[in-house]
Design goal:
Layout lengths: L22 E9 L9 E10 L7 E13 L13 E3 L6 E2 L5 E4 L10 E13 L2 E13 L10 E13 L4 E11 L19
Length: 198
């Protein structure tokens, strides 16, 4: 009896290519008063970009957020209350070509701590490009910080989810802080008179 042995040739599986999806955000302050007192209006700048994108070429960014004030030393951002106010969508400017931004608090105020800026249309950022474009807007100091750093107001900016054209996603957070001082009352000028000695 002759046994026939059939050998199955197994084709190697296709190698899975590596993919990466990286985005970048930078928070800075274009202008702050000196001294930066309660009532001062400061201008914030958020710059966006993309890092390396293996297996793809583009990062698509639809919205970014900015937290007006955060308690120092706490995970995430815990709202301090009415410490900083957003001055409204009328203060927005951008260098993102053919894109406009609107927020979840268009009239401004301190009632919403996390301001979400939505891009219309979404921004397609080429890989390894920073900065690609930016958004600027105004905030106002309403009070000193209520945490352990009363003269420094911590803030955050970032994006929760941006997508790459390789099915990957990216998220990024940056932090900043602005100084805050109590407004000093103007001194009263008067004439000092010597009291008679007793």
């Amino acid at each position: 009896m002759i046994a026939l042995v059939v050998l199955g040739l197994i084709a190697p599986r296709g190698l899975q290519a590596q993919t990466t999806c990286n985005g970048t955000i930078e928070i800075s302050y274009v202008s702050t008063d000196n001294p930066n007192v309660v009532g001062s209006v400061d201008r914030v700048r958020l710059r966006f970009g993309a890092g390396g994108i293996s297996g793809g070429t583009t990062l698509t960014l639809s919205n970014v957020f900015f937290d007006l004030d955060c308690k120092a030393g706490m995970a995430g951002c815990v709202d301090e209350g009415a410490v900083v106010s957003y001055k409204g969508d009328s203060t927005i400017t951008t260098t993102c070509a053919n894109v406009s931004f609107s927020s979840n608090n268009p009239m401004g105020g301190a009632g919403t701590n996390e301001i979400v800026f939505t891009a219309n249309p979404s921004i397609d950022i080429p890989a390894n490009t920073f900065p690609y474009c930016e958004i600027q807007f105004d905030i106002q100091i309403l009070s000193l910080s209520t945490d352990s750093t009363p003269n420094s107001i911590e803030e955050r900016a970032g994006f929760a989810t941006a997508s790459c054209n390789n099915s990957g996603t990216a998220s990024q957070i940056g932090t900043g802080s602005v100084p805050a001082e109590q407004k000093q009352c103007a001194g009263v000028t008067g004439v000092l008179r010597s009291l008679p000695r007793r």
